[in-house]
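Ligand: S-adenosyl-L-homocysteine. Inputs:
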Amino acid sequence: MHDSFVHKGKRKKLVEYLRNRIGISDENVLSAMNKVPRHLFIESIFEDFAYEDRAFPILAHQTISHPSTVAEQSELLKVKAGEKVLEIGTGCGYQTAVLVAMKALVYTVERQKDLFDFSKNKLRELHLTPKFQSFGDGFAGLPTFAPFDKIIVTCGASTLPTELLKQLNIGGIMVIPLGPTDEQVLFRFTKIGPTEFEKEEFGAYKFVPMLGNTNQ
Ligand code: SAH
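Predicted complex:
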């Protein structure tokens, strides 16, 4: 598979859909999503549908998020160039690539070895390499690289991972889906003091679950 004019055309249409129908207005998000070839992150049988607003199965029974979800989470993060962003749940690496294209310094954690390996190779191949990729449990964050300006969690947590909130800078933002396995609510936490947070709510979503530290 390569990135053809047909792919580029479909991508442009997806970006217009994100702007006009989903209401994404952060130009940094829209231009990053116009750059990253989503069809190269999924199996070739789904290639023709790669630029529709759909999720697809990836390795290890996980899923690549809907483009609208990636766009919304990225917009809620208010990413600026040069910021340190921690991502929990690399998956196939698509959201990682979008954040790298937004010029963030991305640190990303994945607990499935197959996806850790896949995303590492894919992101290198596309020259969208994050600062650091870790194979491990995202509940612990990455204390050696903390603090972070932004944290994005791309799996649904049944309990709030408090360790991650500790690893945020004051003024930093964490975007995270919280709730049981079948449905979560997307939240944005803004750190306004060492232990004080502002909490906003952004509607219902369905993410794969955030699991503990063993491969299940
Ligand atoms: N960011 C991806 C979404 C992948 S799905 C995208 O661009 O579409 C969410 C990912 O979170 C899965 O790959 C899953 O294995 C991973 N995950 C679940 N629990 C985790 C944990 N505790 N630590 C790190 N990754 C986790």
